[in-house]
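Q: My labmate handed me this sequence with no annotations at all. I'd like to see what the chain might look like in three dimensions before we decide whether it's worth expressing. Could you predict it?
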Amino acid sequence: MSQGSSASSVSRKNYHSIMAASQFIGTTSVNVGLRFSKCSKTKGKRCQFWEWDDDLLDPRIADLISSLKCEKVALKHENIVLQMKVAELENILEMLHEEDDND
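A: Here is what I predict for the chain of 103 residues:
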């Protein structure tokens, strides 16, 4: 098994004729976006089945995907901060309108 691979489950496929394997997508910088399958049994009952479903990516492509994912996370955070600022400004504007109405 790949060292440090983290993944998110996406689907299942059959292996050893009768068993079901879960398919995952690698999220480490080295294995980003690559699909792999492993035994779907619970820890302790799990067999050693594990295999790549995709060919390895060119390192430059893997770096690009990894940096784009980081940029996406940063943009999501920036979006949240900007939404909070907009909400704050809308509250200030509402308070100013209320003051004008009271005059």
